[in-house]
Amino acid sequence: MSDDVGAFGARLRACCRLAGLSQEELAERSGLSIRTISNLERGRARKPYPSTCQRLADALELRDKARAEFLAARRRQGRAMITVGTDNSGDAPGQPGGESSAPPRHLPAPVPAFVGRRDQLGTLSQVLCTPARTANIAVISGSPGVGKTALALRWAHDVAERFPDGQLYVDLRGYDVDQPMTAADALAGLLRALGMAGLDIPDGTDERAAAYRSLLAGKHVLVVLDNASGPAQVRPLLPGTGECAALVTSRDALAGLVAREGASRLELDLLPLAEAVDLLRELVGARVSADPLAAAALATYCSRLPLALRVAAELAVAHPVLPLARLAGQLADLRNRLSVLDAGGDEQTAVQSVLSWSYRHLDAAAARSFRLLGQHPGADFDGYALAALTGSTFEDACRLLDQLARAYLIQSSGPRRYGMHDLLRAYAREHAASDCRDGDGAEDHDEVRRAALTGCSITTCRSPLPPWIRCSPLAATSGRIPPQRASRRT
């Protein structure tokens, strides 16, 4: 450590000795923490705030020249810290005595009974464990309940030894019952985890991000950013060096993060049927092997969605004498499926609640489109179908479909064609009926609902088709109108 870097600490120790004050007594007088004073004395803190130095000078009763020299030492240390702030001495920042502390291990426990996803685990290792000039970034995106967090935590625990300087974890609450966490608040927690004293944390988001990147420089740290709402929330939290890696999960495609920061996106799909049954077997036990047909039906009624499978498995375990075929029968009716999978009313686990967090992020036009598509009779749909249902232009319908696809509330089933799994369809239908009962969204019922079920538009179709053509059921399903079935308006 240079003389300038330790100048303020040396001056502070000398003043304490002259005043006959211990660190504890100085902390009590100044209102600062003992840890902060210890860090300042040992030169392990960044440039102290002017207000901190003023409080110390007051507590030490410094006057005139002594006070001026005390404050000048702070300025000299600040200039020196700029030069050596990225020095990787091996000591943890903010630790008294310069002693190395245990690296942060903040990963939550992995989800039990994790099955499958071998290819995805391999892809994450290939992307995030390859040396690079800048931090490796991977985004796991997918529909609500598809197991993004489970995959991220399983992989992070498997490769933890590759990041010996620690693993950091933040739940950004991007799609949650609570307000999303701001980047500034997330950075404050990360800085504390890396050893920075609370009073040393800068106020601004940019300043916190700079301090965060400085503390990570030269270290091998894995940062898991769970449940992100968008690129702007994530960008300040990304490491700046190639020794670190960042793994992000989101229900949004985070296209901006891919385009600008070069993140690799891994889109997580529903489990294959065999793996869905394997998950039930891990959670329920021998009853699954004893009745494989009922287990397969149960997995299918759960849309092979990991969250729904876990809720169904809990029901099976809670009722050990209930045959799996009977439980599958309770889920057979699409109208009752979400109420059965309510997880005892737990908002964090109930399938309907988890789906609602994504639905609430939609604007009014996209939300209405989602409700109408849930009532569509076809297995899939395209821009022509949505234009017919909403009376919008083909271009507007395609933009709405893209918005729903980026939110993973519909899934691609082919070139420019989309579908939704049964649990999303059940949620869309139930929400449309609920809105009608509450007096909202009544436009989704009556004529519009009949249009969705028959494939006919209630208005003149404003897609690129001739305005005298009325959309037939085949048009709403396929986007193609046979000339012999088109009728001219009179």
* Cross-sheet strand order for the largest sheet: 2-3-4-1-5
Q: Helical element count?
A: 24
- Indicate the proportion of strand residues: 5-15%
- What is the name of the CATH superfamily of the largest domain? P-loop containing nucleotide triphosphate hydrolases
| CATH topology heading of the largest domain | Rossmann fold
Detail the topology: elements first, then pairings:
Elements: H1 7-19, H2 23-30, H3 34-41, H4 50-59, H5 64-84, H6 118-128, E1 136-142, H7 148-158, E2 167-171, H8 183-193, H9 205-216, E3 222-228, H10 231-234, E4 245-250, H11 255-261, E5 264-268, H12 273-284, H13 286-290, H14 292-301, H15 306-318, H16 324-332, H17 337-340, H18 351-359, H19 364-374, H20 383-390, H21 394-406, E6 411-414, E7 417-419, H22 422-438, H23 447-454, H24 473-478
Parallel strand pairs: 1-4, 1-5, 2-3, 3-4
Antiparallel strand pairs: 6-7
